UniProtKB/TrEMBL annotation:
This enzyme's EC code(s): 4.2.1.10
InterPro entries given in the database record: DHquinase_II (IPR001874), DHquinase_II_CS (IPR018509), DHquinase_II_sf (IPR036441)
Family membership noted in the UniProt record: Belongs to the type-II 3-dehydroquinase family.
Species assigned in the record: Pricia antarctica
Gene: aroQ
Protein name: 3-dehydroquinate dehydratase
Pathway as given in its UniProt record: Metabolic intermediate biosynthesis; chorismate biosynthesis; chorismate from D-erythrose 4-phosphate and phosphoenolpyruvate: step 3/7
Entry's Gene Ontology molecular function annotations: 3-dehydroquinate dehydratase activity
Domain of life: Bacteria
Subunit structure: Homododecamer.
Active site, renumbered: 22, 97
Residues binding substrate: 71, 77, 84, 98-99, 108
Site, as annotated: Transition state stabilizer: 17
């Protein structure tokens, strides 16, 4: 089973800023734990701050990987292009968010990802990613 985790803009700052919202662990450190937890899964990780790079990666892996775990970060609320890319590929995409976006500002209540995602997991901190991976296994 091959799964790619894709993180969008500013998630490279995890653990460095706003720990009250996003926690105090870097994604790289968390990703090492995930790999230990899911030894049976070929897990890969990609992060970009650039919308076109995220779309390119979805297209690149979206016809051969078993699943994509996507936190499109701020692009979740703006990107028709990422929403269309998810619709265009064959691999199922699970949308994740660290925070519960519905408890936050109104503009975060809209997602261009959700309509084309297999499912959505949000509000469980970094554990949201683990739950998303489990959803592919069960
Ligand atoms: O809760 C999530 O996972 C979000 O996707 C995070 C995005 C936000 O725009 C979405 O509404 C919800 C923001 C990611 C920014 O990450 C930072 C991490 C550390 C410091 C500053 C920003």
């Amino acid at each position: 089973m091959k799964i790619l985790i894709i993180n969008g803009p500013n998630l490279n700052l995890l653990g460095k800023r706003e720990p009250e919202v996003y926690g105090d662990q870097s994604f790289e450190a968390y990703f090492e734990n995930l790999k230990l937890k899911f030894k049976e899964v070929e897990l890969e990780y990609f992060q970009s701050n650039i919308e076109g790079e995220l779309i390119g990666k979805i297209q690149e892996v979206g016809f051969s990987y078993d699943g994509i775990v996507l936190n499109a970060a701020a692009y979740t609320h703006t990107s028709v292009g990422i929403g269309d890319a998810i619709k265009a590929v064959e691999s199922p995409v699970v949308e994740v968010h660290i925070s519960n976006t519905h408890q936050r500002e109104q503009f975060r209540h809209v997602s261009y990802i959700s309509p084309n995602a297999k499912g959505v997991i949000l509000g469980f901190g970094l554990k949201s990613y683990e739950l998303a991976i489990r959803s592919f296994l069960e």
